[in-house]
């Protein structure tokens, strides 16, 4: 692939207008290449929009921990399911009581988590 304005090999694609650019034309915005100052402005704006929509939909915020109440539900679910499984194996018959309680907690945790994810979108 050649640069759109020079007859040399392109090093990348302008993030705004998708033209191929050579090392002389390319402007590195830090997060994508631009072919001109106009495009550099566009690329910066695209990056801001991408960041904003990521925040809006909670993408890429993996550093955020789950709320404590949901963690508690998951903890109880794991405890009951774990203990239920252990008793089921040692008694050689399923301990339905513990398994059902564990399953119930798991459902509550999943519902609470789902509701919490929906509430994070404030648009
Ligand atoms: Zn461009
Ligand atoms: Zn060029």
TrEMBL record:
Record keywords, A-Z: Membrane, Plasmid, Transmembrane, Transmembrane helix
The species this protein was found in: Pseudoalteromonas xiamenensis
Residues spanning the membrane: 70-89, 96-114
Domain of life assignment: Bacteria
Record-given protein name: B box-type domain-containing protein
């Amino acid at each position: 692939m050649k640069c759109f304005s020079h007859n040399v090999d392109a090093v990348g694609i302008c993030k705004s207008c998708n033209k191929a650019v050579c090392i002389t034309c390319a402007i590195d915005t830090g997060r994508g290449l631009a072919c001109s100052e106009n495009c550099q402005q566009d690329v910066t704006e695209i990056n801001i929009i991408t960041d904003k929509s990521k925040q809006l939909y909670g993408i890429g915020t993996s550093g955020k921990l789950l709320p404590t109440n949901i963690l508690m539900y998951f903890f109880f679910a794991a405890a009951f399911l774990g203990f239920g499984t252990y008793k089921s194996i040692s008694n050689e018959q399923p301990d339905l009581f513990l398994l059902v309680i564990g399953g119930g907690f798991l459902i509550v945790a999943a519902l609470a988590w789902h509701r919490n994810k929906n509430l994070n979108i404030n648009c």
